[in-house]
Design brief:
Layout: H1 3-36, H2 42-46, E1 49-50, E2 55-56, H3 59-90, H4 95-107, H5 112-126, H6 133-158, H7 161-169, H8 174-203, H9 206-211, H10 231-240, H11 247-276
Antiparallel strand pairs: 1-2
Helix pairs in contact: 1-11, 3-6, 3-8, 4-6, 5-6, 6-8, 7-8, 8-11, 10-11
Length: about 280
């Protein structure tokens, strides 16, 4: 067997593996779109639920999800990026820093239900925030924090060391070097971590089940200390707990959740692309 034949076999095998990954996703998206598209309407998306969620719309759940994702990102991104900056730029390479980095990587694999119990014990009970948007947002923020820290670390470490050396040699301080010579080039990678965090925060059910989600609230929250409905939990409830719900209503809710995640991800991808175009290396 010559080299060209081996290469064709390898490329074919890799393409087959890619199809195995992509095809089920496309099938799932197709089924959800086919069965849920007929339910989409202005009333369905922007209306209030009625008759115990057997009629009306899903606007409180949609708005609640946006609130929770926004709060989680506002909490996790600054804290995650600053933590990554410290680990990459300031901390020394010793046993303690390596242990911290290992712990961060391991935290990314902790089941979401554990984060939900953590949020219940710390934010709801200990800090007294109650079952509220604030508790849910902080819990989701803690959950996506390891992903953002890891992605930000890798982005910062990918910036060539020569950028730092040149900046320092010109008399800039350590922080000025990070601010002007490192962070602008690491932003695309940081936004990648943010995109991953967005997707996970928007689709999780277990953390909000313990900290914020309400079964049925035909009104909008008025403060961060109010409960709210959320699309993942709403979808779970109408699929398992409420009899007689139309099939297109359930799949329509799933389709709205997917569209929300896609829109948020698309906005972040555009922002990342604009920063990536500014790279000169």
């Amino acid at each position: 067997m010559n080299v060209r034949t081996q290469q064709r076999i390898a490329v074919g095998f890799l393409f087959f593996c890619t199809v195995l990954v992509v095809l089920p996703v496309l099938v799932i998206l197709g089924i959800i779109t086919y069965k849920g598209f007929s339910a989409l309407s202005f009333e369905f998306i922007f209306g209030m639920p009625k008759s115990g969620m057997n009629a009306g719309g899903i606007f409180p759940a949609l708005l609640g999800t946006i609130y929770l994702v926004t709060g989680a990102i506002l909490f996790a991104v600054p804290l995650g990026v600053l933590s990554a900056i410290y680990l990459v730029e300031y901390s020394r390479d010793n046993a303690i820093s390596r242990l911290i980095k290992l712990a961060i990587v391991n935290l990314a694999g902790v089941p979401s239900v554990v984060y939900g119990l953590f949020g219940l014990g710390v934010f709801v009970v200990f800090l007294g925030f109650g079952v509220s948007i604030l508790s849910g947002s902080l819990t989701l923020g803690i959950m996506i924090l390891p992903v953002i820290i890891t992605a930000s670390r890798e982005a910062l470490e990918s910036v060539p060391q020569s950028f730092r050396i040149v900046s320092l040699s010109l008399g800039a301080s350590r922080w000025q070097t990070i601010r002007h010579a490192v962070l602008p080039h690491a932003l695309p990678g940081i936004l990648t971590g943010t995109i991953l965090g967005l997707g996970r925060a928007a689709g999780e059910t277990a953390p909000i089940l313990f900290t914020v989600a309400a079964f049925y609230l035909p009104r909008l929250p008025e403060s961060v200390f109010d409960q709210t409905m959320a699309l993942p939990y709403h979808l779970y409830v109408i699929s398992t707990q409420v009899p007689g719900i139309r099939e297109d209503f359930r799949f329509g809710t799933a389709l709205v959740l997917l569209l929300l995640v896609l829109i948020l991800n698309f906005a972040a991808i555009i922002l990342r692309y604009r920063f990536r175009k500014k790279k000169r290396w």
